[in-house]
Amino acid sequence: MGRYRSFTVRPPRPSFTKRAIERWTVQLISHFGDRSERRDDAANWVGVSTRTVDAWCSASDPRVISADMLMELAVGATINQASIMDADQIYDVVTDGEIIASLRDVGHAAYIADLRAYEVVRRDGKPVRMTEEQKVRSRLRKIIASGHLTLKQISDVTGGDEYAVVDKIVELRNRTHKTLYDFTIDRVDHQIRRGYDSEWPWIGAAA
């Protein structure tokens, strides 16, 4: 990988406790299927056993879901979080002409599309528009999905940890849990683009 310049990052490195990650995992799993099958469905989605998922959700077990798997779990949760009724604006996530998911929220659709290299289109044919903050999150997700930078490398640049990066790029939110991390997403984006050498042309392409 390339080198990046050192620079001061504030605020200081946050700490994501076992309890915080556990509650986050349970919240995402709550969007999967019927109540009795949710953990089975979530386990199948990320390719682990149900016993492993149970451990992630248990306060008495020290095991926690990895940041990469948490990011992937959020894909399944986003797809399953809401049924599509008749709506003026429906966003389809498509690949090779096949609709993978349909959602009413452009941010949710973009999250799935970015991490899978899919495309988001509006069903009514109008242009897809996102807020500037959504665009920044989208750029970071595309960088991760491209394999150019890992969650760990991004967290090293921004002075946070891997869970903090996931927390800033997910779109699906609990109403009572807006964010766990306290620096703004546009600062993360700026730090990554400023911190890496100009020899990395893909940074400009992603931006």
Structural account:
With 207 residues, this protein is mainly alpha-helical. It has 10 helices and 3 strands, in the order ααααββαβααααα. The chain has helices at residues 18-29, 38-46, 50-56, 67-80, 106-116, 132-146, 151-158, 162-169, 185-195, 201-206; strands at 91-95, 98-103, 119-122. Strand 1 (91-95) and strand 2 (98-103) form a beta hairpin. The two termini are 19 Å apart.
Summarize the topology.
Elements: H1 18-29, H2 38-46, H3 50-56, H4 67-80, E1 91-95, E2 98-103, H5 106-116, E3 119-122, H6 132-146, H7 151-158, H8 162-169, H9 185-195, H10 201-206
Antiparallel strand pairs: 1-2, 1-3
Helix pairs in contact: 2-3, 5-6, 7-8
Helix-strand category? mainly alpha
Note the total helix count. Answer: 10
Order of strands, main sheet, comes to 2-1-3
Q: Give the H and E element order.
A: HHHHEEHEHHHHH
* Broad shape: globular
Proportion in β-strands: 5-15%
- How helical, in percent, are the residues? 40-55%
Low-confidence stretches: 1-13, 175-183
- What is the CA-atom radius of gyration, in angstroms? 17 Å
Mean pLDDT: 81
Distance between the termini: 19 Å
Secondary structure: number of strands: 3
The major β-sheet equals: 3 strands, antiparallel
